[in-house]
Design goal:
Number of helices: 6
Protein name: Ras-related protein Rab
Bound molecules: guanosine-5'-triphosphate, magnesium ion
Keywords: GTP-binding, Lipoprotein, Membrane, Nucleotide-binding, Prenylation
CATH architecture: 3-Layer(aba) Sandwich
Largest sheet: 7 strands, mixed
Oligomer: single chain
Family: Belongs to the small GTPase superfamily. Rab family.
CATH superfamily: P-loop containing nucleotide triphosphate hydrolases
Structural class: alpha/beta
Order of helices and strands: EHEEHEHEHEHHE
Number of strands: 7
InterPro entries: P-loop_NTPase (IPR027417), Rab29/Rab38/Rab32 (IPR030697), Small_GTP-bd (IPR005225), Small_GTPase (IPR001806)
GO cellular component, one term: lysosome
Shape: globular
Strand order of the largest sheet: 2-3-1-4-5-6-7
CATH topology: Rossmann fold
Distance between the termini: 36 Å
Radius of gyration: 16 Å
Helix content: 25-40%
């Protein structure tokens, strides 16, 4: 075993947000590299595993794909237990799903207490950016402010359909989780801007904050 010295991590990651925003599609794209235009609502919760081989560690992401309809149920407390990270997803074409982001974040912070007293590491995903930007993501500064006010460590415009920014968003989340664990937020997390921002395609809501 040559890699016996590599660190191994298993992280439970939640994927939450309103009905039909694309949570299952994002996971499918990230883990299985495919996409389907057919909508089948998730019932309860589904699971997927993504393995990342980083330079000094192997990271296993156990992704919990929680049905949008669970916001109105009582199960989220059970599903959230022991999670260390979360993607909160909205649909850029439907303003109501953005309004729900705060509710999801509050639900998360209220029900999930980390042992170190911190809030769970959360990244905001503005999904379906292939369908246009609509009202919400036109103003990058406002999104940045929204993220900082609501305790998100990053925000990405994503498309499960066209495979935009999903890897970048996951990298941002993992970096912050690892940095949190090590309790150092220095050089490793200092490349704050996702390369996608420069292409003019990902645009105004693609950033990973340093802390
Ligand atoms: P629930 O399980 O009900 O909570 O929904 P969900 O958030 O898992 O949504 P799902 O991934 O099932 O996607 C809902 C619909 O949106 C499907 O028809 C997808 O094909 C479509 N969709 C998902 N992501 C994208 C995207 O990035 N772009 C476009 N154009 N459509 C997408
Ligand atoms: Mg689903």
């Amino acid at each position: 075993m040559q890699n016996h010295h590599l660190k191994e991590h298993l992280y439970k990651i939640l994927v939450i947000g309103d009905l039909g925003v694309g949570k299952t599609s994002i996971i499918k794209r990230y883990v299985h590299q495919n996409f389907s235009a057919n909508y089948r609502a998730t019932i309860g919760v589904d699971f997927a595993l993504k393995v990342l081989s980083l330079e000094h560690e192997t990271v296993r992401l156990q992704l919990w794909d929680i049905a949008g309809q669970e916001r109105f149920g009582n199960m989220t407390r059970v599903y959230y237990r022991e999670a260390v990270g979360a993607f909160i997803v909205f649909d850029v074409t439907r303003p109501s799903t953005f309004e729900a982001v705060k509710k999801w974040k509050e639900d998360l912070d209220a029900k999930l207490n980390l042992s170190n007293g911190k809030r769970v590491t959360a990244v905001l995903l503005a999904n379906k950016c292939d369908e246009g930007r609509d009202v919400l993501t036109n103003n990058g500064i406002r999104m940045e402010q929204f993220c900082q006010e609501n305790g998100f460590v990053g925000c990405f415009e994503t498309s499960a359909k066209e495979n935009i920014n999903i890897d970048e968003a996951a990298q941002c989340l993992v970096k912050h989780i690892i940095a949190n664990e090590k309790d150092l937020l220095q050089s490793e997390v200092s490349d704050t801007i996702s390369p996608q921002q420069e292409t003019g395609r990902g645009g105004t809501c693609s950033m990973c904050f340093t802390s």
